[in-house]
């Protein structure tokens, strides 16, 4: 049994994430340490994010697509952040009318992985996702990557635990929003790998008898 962590998941990764995600020059994705976490003073719940990016990895265009073309006062809301989980929702709408349109989750542990896999495999229209997300699944409005990364706080990279990366569209569900979710999880996976080290191929071997998924 692994020892409980002393810090929330995002805090445990903050120092290493800050060193490699100050800003992606290709996409402009903001740093984890820049992510707004305070409630605004305009009556809206959540923070405004940085340069239009929300939940660290969701672009302004992705938010607009999930909101049906126009995102009204988009905000991000961290709904869970502890030693084993980070869950963030993108909200749109005015005061008293805010609704989540995208949810991103990073979950640690065997139980979370099994739950994420069962849900992904049972989704309508599910297809194999890209290998770089580990054992991954793509269905309309739901993208799941089951990988293996170094445990936060571990002394060496051999101490790995299951990581489940899940992107969900809670608003409009179409090809564009699904592709946006895949893109967001790709960035999340890349940043995790740079920060702590991940082995998606090992995760595939452990869960799927060594067979690989096929990138779309």
Write up this protein.
The chain has 216 residues and is of the alpha+beta class. The chain has a 7-stranded antiparallel β-sheet with strand order 1-2-3-7-6-5-4, with helices on both faces. The radius of gyration is 17 Å and the shape is globular. The protein starts with 8 loop residues before the first helix and ends in an 8-residue tail after the last helix. The N terminus and C terminus are likely disordered.
Structural category is: alpha+beta
> What strand order characterises the main sheet?
1-2-3-7-6-5-4
Order of helices and strands: HHEEEHEEEEHH
Low-confidence runs (pLDDT<50, min 5 residues)? 1-7, 14-28, 30-38, 210-216
What percentage of amino acids are in beta strands?
15-25%
User: How many strand elements?
Assistant: 7
**Average pLDDT for all residues:** 82
Q: Sheet bearing the most strands, described?
A: 7 strands, antiparallel
**How far apart lie the N and C ends?**
36 Å
Instruction: Please estimate the helix content.
Output: 25-40%
* General form: globular
Q: What radius of gyration results from the CA coordinates?
A: 17 Å
> How many helices does DSSP assign?
5
């Amino acid at each position: 049994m692994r020892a409980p962590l002393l810090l929330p998941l995002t805090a445990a990764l903050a120092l290493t994430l800050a060193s490699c995600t100050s800003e992606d020059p290709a996409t402009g994705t903001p740093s984890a340490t820049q992510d707004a976490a305070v409630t605004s003073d305009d009556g809206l719940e959540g923070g405004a994010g940085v340069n239009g990016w929300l939940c660290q990895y969701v672009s302004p265009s992705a938010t607009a697509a999930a909101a049906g073309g126009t995102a009204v006062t988009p905000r991000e809301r961290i709904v869970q952040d502890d030693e084993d989980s980070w869950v963030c929702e993108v909200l749109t709408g005015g005061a008293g009318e805010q609704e989540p349109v995208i949810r991103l989750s990073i979950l640690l542990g065997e139980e979370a992985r099994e739950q994420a896999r069962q849900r992904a495999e049972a989704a309508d229209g599910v297809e194999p996702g890209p290998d770089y997300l580990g054992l991954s699944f793509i269905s309309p409005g739901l993208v799941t990557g089951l990988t293996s990364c170094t445990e936060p706080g571990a002394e060496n990279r051999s101490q790995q635990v299951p990581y489940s990366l899940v992107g969900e569209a809670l608003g409009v569900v179409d090809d564009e929003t699904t592709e946006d979710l895949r893109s967001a999880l790709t960035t999340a996976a890349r940043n995790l790998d740079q920060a702590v080290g991940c082995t998606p191929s090992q995760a595939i071997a452990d869960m799927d008898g060594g067979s690989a998924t096929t990138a779309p």
